Each structure stands twice: as C-alpha cells, then as structure tokens.
User: Fold this.
Amino acid sequence: LYNSLNMSKFVPNKVYLRGILLHYFIQKKSAAEAHRILVQTYGDNALSDTTCSDWFRRFKNNDFELEDKERSGAPKKFQDKELEQLFDEDPSQTLSELGKILQVDESTISKRLKGLGMIQKQGHWVPHDKVILLHDNARPHVAKPVKTYLETLKWEVLPHPPYSPDIAPSDFHLFRSMAHGLADRRFHSYEEAQWEKVVSSDGQYMSFFRRGIYVLPERWEKVVSSDGQYFK
Assistant:
C-alpha cells in the first residue's frame, strides 16, 4: 500500500518519458502503441500522441539524444519536403502540432502552407487546386444525380471513352502496384497489411498517388497511339 501511494504521487519528467519511448522503439513497438501504454500508466502526465510520433521519427533517424537541444536566437529553418513528409504521415495535423514538430511558430507554418498552395478542408490539409475527376464510366458514376452533384462542386470531369479502362489511374497504377505488393506475401498482423504499406514500400502514400497522376498524360498518349489495341 505504501509503494502504491508513493507511485501515485510520482510525476515523470519529459526525459524519463522519452527514455521509455526509446525502450519501446527498441522493442519494435509503434509510436501509437507506446503512447497508449504511457496513457494507461501515467494518465494526464503522458506525452501526447504527436510528441510520441515525433520522437519515434527522431529515433528512426538515429537521433537518440533525449535532452532538449539548445536553441539559438535565430529562427529554425526547415525544408518544404519536411512539411510534405509530415502531411504524408498525417494530413490532419494542426498548425500547433506541426509547429512543435518542426520547432517553429504557427505563423511560420501558415505562411509556408500558403506558399505551397495548401488549405484545410474537413480537418485535412489538401492542395488548393482545381479538382479534376476521371472516372471509369461505371453506371453509378454517370447517373444523373451524380452528374448534378458534381456540377454543384464545380469539378472538371474528364471524358472517358467507353471500354477503355487502361486510362484509369486505379487500373494502371493502384491495382497493379497492389498486385505486385501482395504477390507471394503472408501477413502476420493488421499493421503489415495496411494498404498504404502494400502499394508504397516507404509508406509515403500521398507521393504514391501523386506519381500515378503525373504519368496519366503519358498513359493517354499510349491509348490513342494503340488505336484501341490492348497493351500493358
């Protein structure tokens, strides 16, 4: 009983909790698992989910220094690719969370996001570009209610010739990559079978879909030049 009372009064400091994170990292647990254990053990004194993810990212980069690094008077600089990587991992992160990870203030993050043409929609950061939709002419996609709704969204719908599935990114990019990723594989956990890890070995699934869009014009040219003939 005495030990229980003493433990209930124990308030761990940040370095202590970071050491526990490092232990779970070495044990090959995920940041989410480590955060869940910290909350179960230390309650309100546990590190946040975002902070746990940030430290796991440092450990993966072979940065095992648990003490806070001294900050110079000059504001910290970061590359756009660092911000894009954070969006690949979780596009729902807030300005405050992004600022803490990159060690800059929210106004700096906000200015950089505007420069990248990013806006927040339904809690997710997305490119502020015109939406161009390419579907496969399936009946649900060309039904009148769907067409009417797409008009209200002011989306540009690209024409899709009948019986030409070769120009749909889902066919030539997504499904093919999934087929290669699933070939001769056996999964032992739900985490291993996450679809973004199947289609993209580095886990950067936003970059994966971006590549599929970039090769779309080249794919269209192949469809036209083949004169309706099938090709791989």
About this structure: The beta strands are 118-121, 124-127, 132-133, 156-157. Residues 1-7 have pLDDT under 50 and may be disordered. The radius of gyration is 23 Å.
